[in-house]
TrEMBL record:
SUPFAM superfamilies with a match to the protein in the record: L domain-like
Pfam families the record matches: LRR_8
Region described as Disordered: 13-33
Entry-linked InterPro entries: Leu-rich_rpt, LRR_dom_sf, PRK1-6/SRF4-like
Gene3D superfamilies per record: Ribonuclease Inhibitor (3.80.10.10)
Name of the protein in question: Leucine-rich repeat-containing N-terminal plant-type domain-containing protein
Top-rank taxon: Eukaryota
Organism in which the protein naturally occurs: Eleusine coracana subsp. coracana
């Protein structure tokens, strides 16, 4: 099973298991609670089964998790690429990934606003969140502070449409 929100902030497999390799009763209970909170199926779908098998440690960088790229020193997540896996849950927990440069979570079912993410990831250069359930306003002041931002794809979400500057001026 894959659950959203954890040490990384987006996804983590079942909590750490006991010495026999299987999850402890407590870990299974926590995983079930997360599963219900994020409306995940009990059994991991084929598309995410590889994550559950690979994401078996509590450390995304030390465990070399699939879809996660870490800094050269192995201490910070710099890229997260998990497109089209039907992942669900809020984006807000990603806001603590201050060294994140690339975020590719297009084609999932992630929700929430961009506020915490854009304010908490000042090094973001590539942002691909199309075909999700993102909503709310795009904080212009947070976007303005993203000096490295080169590409953004937010298509097919529930975001307000931008109006041309000329139209806003006429309506004022």
């Amino acid at each position: 099973m894959v659950v959203l929100v954890g040490d990384l902030g987006v996804l983590e497999p079942d909590a750490a298991g006991d010495r026999s390799g299987g999850p402890t009763a407590r870990a299974r209970g926590e995983a079930e609670r997360h599963r219900r909170a994020y409306h995940l199926p009990s059994a991991a779908p084929t598309r995410t089964a590889f994550l559950a098998a690979n994401w078996s440690t509590g450390d995304a960088c030390g465990g070399r998790w699939t879809g996660v790229t870490c800094s050269a020193d192995g201490r910070r997540v710099v890229a997260l690429s998990l497109p089209s896996l039907d992942l669900r849950g809020p984006l807000d927990p990603l806001g603590h990934l201050a060294e994140l440069r690339t975020l590719d979570l297009r084609g999932n079912r992630l929700n929430g606003t961009l506020d915490a993410l854009l304010r908490g990831a000042p090094n973001l250069a590539l942002l691909y969140l199309s075909r999700n359930e993102v909503s709310g306003e795009i904080p212009a002041d947070a976007v303005a502070r993203l000096a490295r931002l080169a590409r953004v794809d937010l298509a097919d979400n529930s975001l307000p449409r931008a109006r041309p500057a000329g139209r806003r001026a006429r309506e004022a």
